[in-house]
Amino acid sequence: MDLSLSTRTVGDRTIVEVGGEIDVYTAPKLREQLVELVNDGSYHLVVDMEGVDFLDSTGLGVLVGGLKRVRAHEGSLRLVCNQERILKIFRITGLTKVFPIHGSVDEAVAATD
Amino acid sequence: MAIVELRFSALPEHVRTARLVAAAVARRAGVDEAVLDEVRLAVGEACSRAVGLHVGHGLDTPVRVALIEEEKKFSIEVGDAAPTATAGAHGSTAPAPASPTADSEEAESEMGLAVISGLVDDVEVIADDKGGLIRMSWPVTPEPVLP
């Protein structure tokens, strides 16, 4: 399965809904999307990963890169994920300490800390 | 011992194929269903890393994957042709919170090894002047699933 991406705006947050597989082949598309959003002035991103079937370290690298870019503008990058097999990868790499991970888009949009 | 071998040009789009083949052979070999996700992720990480090394070194040789079914374990070997790049990599990959510079290629490679080390109990990383090899093994249940 390929990668699907769609974006929408809720208040000052931009929701990036990701579906499919994020790997070494598809991750560049996600990177382009995040770079484009930041270049267009969207600095508060919520990446909804509920539709993601597969995530590897290349995808993690892209998310970390996105975080770096929004932080340069005092922005934020929050993740929405409830899938244990995806959460496990964030835990293994210690990235649960780096990304705020929420159970729903509503929760991520409401979060302010 | 039964073996399935796969060789693919060092292109990102073929890594998914390697994951699918590895998962199918692992299932056939009797690797527990609950562990198949880990097999898929680990072989994907190893192949992504090998593709990155081949591209980085300008190598046009294929990445090699061997799927080896033994009596009590299932092993996957992913071989690259990049000289000495992985020497001493294993054991120094304690997962650390990634720094904001982690989107560099090298950091991705390191994160890939960190994921493999975190996922797979039985893993060995070998490297010499001819290339590197990541060998990973999982236990299999006594009665393999029939096709």
Describe this structure in words.
The complex is a heterodimer of chains A (113) and B (147). Chain A has 113 residues and is an alpha/beta fold. Chain A has one domain: STAS domain (Transcription Regulator spoIIAA). Chain A has helices at 27-39, 57-71, 84-92, 105-110, and strands spanning 3-10, 13-22, 44-55, 76-80, 101-102. In chain A, strands 1-2-3-4-5 form a five-stranded mixed β-sheet. The longest helix of chain A has 15 residues, at 57-71. The mean pLDDT of chain A is 96. By secondary structure, chain B is of the alpha+beta class. Chain B has one domain (2-139): Histidine kinase-like ATPase, C-terminal domain (Heat Shock Protein 90), CATH 3.30.565.10. Helices cover 37% and strands 25% of the residues of chain B. Chain B contains three helices and five strands; from the N terminus they run E-H-H-E-E-H-E-E. Chain B has a five-stranded antiparallel β-sheet, covered by helices on one side. The interface between A and B is medium-sized, with 24 and 30 residues. Chain A: This is Anti-sigma factor antagonist. Chain A: Positive regulator of sigma-B activity. Non-phosphorylated RsbV binds to RsbW, preventing its association with sigma-B. When phosphorylated, releases RsbW, which is then free to complex with and inactivate sigma-B. Chain A: Keywords: Phosphoprotein. Chain A: InterPro entries: Anti-sigma_ant, STAS_dom, STAS_dom_sf. Chain A: Belongs to the anti-sigma-factor antagonist family.
Summarize the structure.
Chain A has 113 residues and is an alpha/beta fold. Chain A contains four helices and five strands, in the order E-E-H-E-H-E-H-E-H. Chain B has 147 residues and is an alpha+beta fold.
**CATH class bucket of chain A:** Alpha Beta
Strand content of chain B: 25-35%
From the alpha carbons, calculate the radius of gyration of chain A and give it in angstroms. 13 Å
Shape of chain B: globular
Q: Write down how many β-strands of chain A occur, each being a DSSP E stretch of 2 or more residues.
A: 5
Task: Kindly report the name of the CATH homologous superfamily of chain A.
Answer: STAS domain
Beta-strand percentage range of chain A: 25-35%
**CATH architecture classification name of chain B:** 2-Layer Sandwich
Name the helicity range of chain B: 25-40%
Oligomeric nature of the chains: heterodimer
Give the spatial strand order of the biggest sheet of chain A: 1-2-3-4-5
Number of helices of chain A: 4
Indicate the low-confidence ranges of chain B by residue numbers.
Answer: 85-103
Structural class assignment of chain A: alpha/beta
How is the biggest beta sheet of chain B arranged?
5 strands, antiparallel
Number of strands of chain B: 5
Number of domains of chain B: 1
